[in-house]
Amino acid sequence: MKIFLFAVLKTSLLNIIIPLHYTMRKAMPIPKRGYLLNCCALSGSRGFSLIEIVVFMVVASIIIGGVLFPFVMGVRDFEKPDEVLRAVLLAQSVMERYTHMDFFDRCLTPGSITAITDTDIILPEGYSGTKTIQYIDPKDTNLNISISPTDYKKIEVVITTPSLRTVSLQGIVSNWSYDALMI
Question: Domain range holding 1?
Answer without folding.
Answer: 1-43
